[in-house]
Amino acid sequence: MTTPDPDRLRTLLSEVDFPCDRAELIRQATAHGADDSTLGHLGAIPDSTYPDLDAVTSACTRIT
Fold first, then answer.
1. Its domain of life (predicted)?
2. Vertex 61, ends 4 and 46: CA angle to 5°?
3. Nearest CA to 6 among 56, 46, 47?
């Protein structure tokens, strides 16, 4: 899986109120037209609460 572009994640998750959980990240990304690869990455990150976008981006880069 190719890691989502950080700028694209920023756009997709621009309306997220952090901290938030994985389910909310997926809801927001879906609402903003995320592609299957990005949704797959978000679905594969640990089910946790993320304090900010940097934490989400970091979690996505650890997915192989």
1. Bacteria
2. 105
3. 56
23: number of Cβ within 10 Å: 11
CA pair distance 27, 61, nearest whole angstrom: 20
Cα-based angle 61, 17, 35 (whole degrees, multiple of 5): 45
d(CA 16, CA 52): 9
pTM: 0.91
Query: What are the tens digits of pLDDT across the range 5-56?
Result: 899 999 999 999 999 999 999 999 999 999 999 999 999 999 999 999 999 9
Please name the residues in contact with 5: beta carbons below 8 A apart, sequence gap of 6 or more: none
Structure tokens that stand for 60 in this block? 């996505």
- CA 7 from chain center: how many Å? 11
